[in-house]
Input
Amino acid sequence: MQRVHGDGRATIDALAQQYRVSPQTIRRDVNALCAAGQLRRVHGGVETPRSSNILYTSRRRLNEGAKQNIAHCFAKLIPSGASLAVSIGTTPEIAVQSLETQVDLMVLTNNLNIALYGCDREGWGVQIPGGTLRAGDQDILGPQVEAFFRRYQADFGVFGVGGVSEDGTLLDFTEEEVAVRMAIQRNCRCSILLLDHSKFGRAAHVRGGRIEDVDYVISDMPVPAACAEALGERGVEMIIAEDAK
Output
């Protein structure tokens, strides 16, 4: 999955050569992943799903090193005593876990993994909304969540996206995901978009805002030229995670 999501697609023969196993072994593995909706079969190989997301536990392992680098940069922006409104997604979860030295944080989130982590941090406060629980994604979505974030003015709004199109449009997989992300962005003093390189060109079909609408973008690699130009024109601070190692 790491290989396929990094490259967008892979052939059965290339995977067999990389892992030094037979094509039959690779086919059994990819058939199971495709049956679970985590990959999509194409002629001669597999690719990333076009319009649906994969399981949270699997997403967390994808590009994990890049996400850790992003989290390292993110932690430098957040002082002790700050309030954070944090969205769903594995990169925001890893980013919040990088704040282990900060104290007296208030975390507002619809991401249950982040909420549980915050509950174990001495001196942190955690608020979560009511709503419908998506068990596989381990988060809460719905109108109650949008209303929840509108009740606060957080110091930092922190979120990821499902994908970024070539022209800089931010994409997600459902209208509910977009609505909650936009509610966080509208009700914070400083917005921070976290994304690894796999999000550029990734197929997600619900539009919601543009990459240059935020205050900070933290990525593990330089963004495409069109996005970089738009960020520069709007004065958005672009942080490349590899620069902070």
Remarks:
- Residues 71 and 95 are 4 Å apart (CA to CA).
- The two ends are 26 Å apart (CA to CA).
- The chain has a mean pLDDT of 89.
